[in-house]
Protein: Small ribosomal subunit protein bS20
Organism: Methylocystis borbori
Amino acid sequence: MANTSSAKKAVRKIARRTSVNRARRSRMRTFVRKVEEAIASGNAALAADALQNAVPVVMRAAQRGVIHKNTASRKVSRLTARVKALAAKA
């Protein structure tokens, strides 16, 4: 357990940041899941729309430090490629 007042304050700050970051990560995963579900359903228009909504959320998560920027770019790139392939197949 924290002994000094500064360590106690740090514990409180970390708890607040953790809850904020958990919410941001959850929101990002929800948007990514919507894109993956649209791809699985085979609906190219729905997948493209879901991707358009998901990209800013993923990039914002990277900007806020929830995930690394290269991880965000990789996620967006792979989702985009899958949506593009789905549109080409349809």
Summary: The chain has a mean pLDDT of 96. The chain has three helices and no strands. Residues 44 and 55 are 16 Å apart (CA to CA). Helices lie at 5-41, 44-63, 69-89.
